[in-house]
Each structure stands twice: as C-alpha cells, then as structure tokens.
Amino acid sequence: MPHAIRPRRLLTLATGNWLSRGYLAVLAASVVAMSAFPDSEVGLDPMMLTAPLSFLGTAFPFGPGTEGSLAAEVLATGFWVGLLLLGALGNAAALGALASRSAGAPARHRMRALPAPAVDNWLSRGYLAVVAAAIGFFLYAVCLSPDPGFAGIWPLMATAPLSIVAITLSGPVGGGSLSLVVFTVGTALAGLCNAVLLGRLVRALRR
C-alpha cells in the first residue's frame, strides 16, 4: 500500500542521514537562539531556514502578533508554527533524498544527472514556473517601472533559503547593473538548486 508507506518514507528521509540531521540541528539551534536572544541580529532566522514553504504564511493576513481574541491569536500562531514544521520536514527530506541518492553513484554520473530532477516532474516544474514569474516581475519592476518598490522580495522569498547567498553577494559589488545581474543570476541558480532538491524528493517518495 504505497500511500500508507509514503509518510513513513518522508520521515525516514528527513531523519535518516547525516545531511538531514545536520540541517535539523542547525534549525533547532536557530530556534533556541531566537528564543534566547530575540533582539539579536546574529544567526539565521528559522523562517529563512524553512523557506520557501514557510513564506507561504505571508500570503495570509494572520500570523504571530495577530490581534484579537485569545483563540484567534493561538490559531494564528499555531498556523505559523505548522508552516515552519512543514517547511523543516520538507527541506530535511529533500536533503535526505539528495544524500541517499548520491551515496552509491560514481562522481561523473552524479554530475551528469544532477539537473534532471528539476524538470522531470510536475512539482519541480511548477516551482520553476513560480521562480521565473518572480524573477520576471522583479526585472520588469526594476528596469521598466518608475517605482520598483520592494520587488526584489519576491525572487528572494521564492528561492530562499539559498537566495540569501545571492543577496549577500550582490551587496558588496557596489550596486548598479552589476549588482542587478549578480542578484538575478544568483536567485535563478538558487531556484534551480531548490527545484533539483524538490525533484529528488519526488523521486525518493515514488520508490
């Protein structure tokens, strides 16, 4: 009964190897650090570490800090925590699928087959379409719109957590066209890496 096995397979991928366990350990440390030092700027935000799924919460008008009755506040906080947990489980399982898939394959074969999972299933192809739309909107806003506003937040959120590297690299280059190119290429590569991980997870759950 494959449908009964898949949740167990997902949990095994999320906890059954050093890569996924290391990710969960870093996430747990970031949660502890955020709780102990809420005003500190040191460390990674748990929301960034569990992206992109955790960023779905920004599409809803409620979350931590929602004002209202106690029940509404608890429900909003629980929804946000649930998204973080789902994001953590998904990311850990994707890393686990990458580690288990790569363990026994020759290096040359791994490099040749690496991009294939990004385009061989509907889930990763749909994700790449979202990334392309976010980057396209960003480029339109920056290059053609008189007021780009915060258009860069969309590709940043869509390709997190790897997009943090793109925004870090685009900062020191001095701004202007070069910074735009570095950020655009960086977020595109981050989206491709995320699509590969997502595709490998789909493959692992099918087996």
In short:
The chain has 207 residues and is an all-alpha fold.
List descriptors.
207 residues, mainly alpha, 9 helices, 70% helix, globular, disordered N terminus
Topology at a glance:
Blueprint: H1 2-15, H2 18-36, H3 46-49, H4 70-102, H5 107-113, H6 122-143, H7 153-158, H8 163-170, H9 176-206
User: What is the tally of helical segments?
Assistant: 9
Structural class designation: mainly alpha
Oligomer: single chain
Mean pLDDT: 80
Q: How many strand units?
A: 0
Give the ordered list of helices and strands.
HHHHHHHHH
Computed CA radius of gyration, to the nearest angstrom: 19 Å
Give the % helix. Answer: 55-70%
The major sheet is characterized as:
none
Structural shape: globular
β content, as a range? under 5%
Stretches with pLDDT under 50, minimum 5 residues = 1-5
Distance from N terminus to C terminus (CA atoms, Å) equals: 12 Å
What does this entry look like structurally?
The chain has 207 residues and is mostly helical. It has nine helices and no strands. It has helices spanning 2-15, 18-36, 46-49, 70-102, 107-113, 122-143, 153-158, 163-170, 176-206. Helix 1 (2-15) packs across helix 4, helix 2 (18-36) packs antiparallel against helix 4 (70-102) and helix 8 (163-170) runs antiparallel to helix 9. The longest helix is centred in the middle third of the chain and has 33 residues, at 70-102. It is globular. The two termini are 12 Å apart. Mean pLDDT is 80; it is low at 1-5.
